[in-house]
Amino acid sequence: MDKIIISSDSHVFEPTDLWKKTLGDRFGDKVPHGVTSFEGHEGNFFYVGRPGEAARLEELVSDDGKDRRLDDLAKAGADPVYRLELMDKDGIHAEVLNPTWGLWIPRMADGAARNACAEVFNDWIQEYCSQNLKRLLAVAMIPIVDVDWAVKELDRVVKRGARAIMIGTNPVDGAAPYRDRKYDKFWAAAQEAELPVTLHIVTGRVRDPFTYHGDKERENIPASFLDLFYEAQPALANEFIFGGIFDRFPRLKIFLSEYDASWLPILKYRLNRIQTFPGFDHLEKKPASRYVEENIYAGIINDPLAAKLRNEIGIDRIMWGSDFPHPPCPYPNTTQNIDRILSELSPEDRFKVVAGNAAKLFKIDL
Asked: What is the model's pLDDT at position 60?
């Protein structure tokens, strides 16, 4: 049992023509799709469904061009049979699967196209996972601006076996904030279904650094990269904690995927400081930091401080993920990488981080 490894944050590589092929001309060029040039830049790009933004494919599926794993990673991301072979080779028991190209869906401006693209992804990921539903665990994409549609889609994906649901870290510009009570029936449905709600980097309002091209634009990459990892903090504080969502739905669980974890202790300190401000002492008679301890899980890949700060973060709240099949993943040396970043942990705590916590949250059979 102590050798079991579960990745709480892995991905698939959806076909770049998935949405065009499925939706046809219904939304024209508004849907995500591959293109061979973008705004004067030549190469293979993936238009993400937002004006002015496309990711260069080579930067997302390769690094220095010398990585011999790339063919394996690309094939496994689209082929579940081959993926399971690589999982066996690398000693992985199960993977929680997020989109790659679909991460941008919550940021699409056109509401009807946004919902339709989410439905297409949810159908595709469930078919992919059907190869082995005990080891390949689907995370459904559900933008929630259209609340009635979102509740229906949640019910649909639950019936098909989704293990979690992903929403945007923030709603699109112009939409009501998540703390607005119009969303309460969605939070209620998620809580009733006992599905964790995933917030993943790239799904919010901060522009993904991979969509900057040309020397002038790329000057924004350092700030954008740092903003991506910061974006979850105000979302948690403003919406879920002080916005009252966790008070109204105390069994709701939020998984912060790919945001790392070592910043959570200072966030807990600052949340308690916010609570001393007039008008922000309205929570359910407990320190604001308690919501982090009771409602929030944090995913790590290579966070170098998470093990050192495990007691301040909460060892029952940290979950390791590989980011497979994205090139930074540790495949085929996963066990060695885990040994490196979690060397300070006892066998009991290591098991919680690499398997036990994920098994409990996502209801994975060990």
From this structure: 66
